[in-house]
Every structure is written in C-alpha cells, then in structure tokens.
Amino acid sequence: MGKLKARHILGIAHLGMEEISFILDTAVSMKEIMERPIKKVPPLRGKTIVNLFFEPSTRTKLSFELAAKRLSADTVSIAASTSSVVKGETLIDTARNIEAMRPDIIVIRHSMSGAPYMLSRHVGSAIINAGDGTNEHPSQALLDLMTVREHFGRIDGLKVTIIGDIAHSRVAHSDILAFTRMGASVTVCGPATMMPPEPGELGAKVCLDLKDAIRDADVVMALRIQKERLGRLSPFPSEREYADRFGISTAIEPYLKKDVIIMHPGPINRGVELSPEIADGINSVILKQVTNGVAVRMALYTLLLADLQEHG
Ligand code: CP
Fold this sequence. Notes:
Blueprint: H1 17-34, E1 48-53, H2 59-70, E2 74-79, H3 91-99, E3 105-110, H4 115-122, E4 126-132, H5 138-152, E5 159-163, H6 170-181, E6 185-189, H7 199-202, E7 205-206, H8 210-214, E8 219-222, H9 239-246, E9 261-263, H10 276-279, H11 286-310
Parallel strand pairs: 1-2, 1-3, 3-4, 5-6, 5-8, 6-7, 8-9
The structure holds phosphoric acid mono(formamide)ester.
C-alpha cells in the first residue's frame, strides 16, 4: 500500500487491516526520527495544523503538537474555554472560521460523539478525531497497537483483556475494533453496570470475574473511571470497592502471566484502576504508549498530507 485510502481519521471503524498496518509501519519510521539527537525533519514545512480541544487533554494534545513540530508543520492550539465557543458560537461556525484561515488539518477532541464526522462533512480540511464522546479515540488505539506489536513482534493471536468502564470508554471502543481487526482476541471485564448492552456486537467476549479475565491475557489494559461521563448515579458503590474487585494490584499479580504487559491510556486514577506498584512495575508499558503516541501522530500527519499533496 502506497497511501491511505482514508482522507480523514475519524475512527478505527473506517480503517482496514492493511491501512492500519501501513500507519503502524510509518509510525516505526517516525519513531526512528524521534530517537535522533536532532528530532526535527522538514517534510511538512509550510503546512498548518489546528488543534481544537473542547475537552481537557495532556497526552493527546501535547503529542499532536509535538508531532507537528517535529515534521516542521506550523501548529496552533485553541481550547474551547478560551475561544468564542463560550460566547455561543456553534461548532460548525467555529470550524468554518478556522477553515477560512486555510489550515491543512484540523485535529478535534469533543464531548459529542460524531463531532469529527460532522466537521468532515462541513469543512475542506482533513479531520483527525482526537476523541469524540464515548465513540472513538482512533489515534490512541493505533498507539496501543504499535506498543503491543513492538513488544511481542505481532498482534495476531494475542489475548487482550480490557478492564473498566467499557460502556463509556471511547478508548475501549477503538481498541476492541483495532485489536480484533489485527487478529487478537479481546475480553472485556468490569462491573456489569459498565458493560455496553451488546458487547458481543463490538467483537469482545465479556468476563465479569477479574481473575478469570486476566489469567491467560498477554495484554492487560486498565481504563480510567470516567467520572465526567457517569452522571449522577454511580455504577459502583465506591472507588474502594471498585479497586478491590477490578483494580490491578499486587494482590492480583499471582493471576497475571509473568510476561504480561500492563497498559493504561492515562490519566491514571492511582490506587483505583492500577496500584502504583503495577503502574510503575516492570510489566508496565504505559510510558512507551506515550512515546509511541507521538510517532503515530507523526505518521497520521505524514500520510494524510502526502495524500493532500498528491491531489493538490
Ligand atoms: N489518553 C488520553 O487521551 O489522554 P489525554 O486525555 O491526556 O489526552
């Protein structure tokens, strides 16, 4: 494959296995640039990327910005709280005004599922979804795939267990799609109240017992409890009880495979989803996920803008 078929990165649902492999292979080349003493290369000189974040972010926002700078693109970021959105401007009006300034790519994070898709229908710039509501977080899934492939040398045939708030997690939705598409089997685990109504439709098995869910897993991914999306009624009695039943700690370690890798998209609620010993332990690849996030986002820019250049 010489180029991406997709013109936007809206979700893993829109990417085939070949396209995902192509992005991961490109990300490996980008990571090599990141390991050099001089981490800046010129291919996107003259290109402009706007980051539009309507929800808080540390990793995603910073890595999209760093990725652009390392490829010599000009990048500007605006947060909803300091934009005219607070004066009542709609998302489409905001995006059309940004587009009038001729960016090549708009990266958007929004609390509304489908917001990036809606933008892609109304503006001419390429759109990258940096997380939309409870729907998808495709660049997170791609960096998760990269981290697993880097560690095991493959994804096909691996057993991946995702623990936590599957119903509300865009990371879980993208990861289930991504890992199953690449040949891994995915089990989800967590309180029954945090499972989607039809998890089988996503392609994942459900196991409500943590020990059973992690016993054979090559990859254990803990998810953040998304307090901001839970509403008034908590789906579990207390964080303490959640940690006891679904937290990964030294108490549960004997049930993990010796060579398991522990992942988390961040930010971590330490002592809830993961104990500090596990989050910082030798099986943890959490900071490698963060490093790979920059490489994946460099790959997405390079591939999307190469396509734009080709078609003028
Ligand atoms: N993984 C992730 O999306 O983290 P941020 O919210 O810090 O971007």
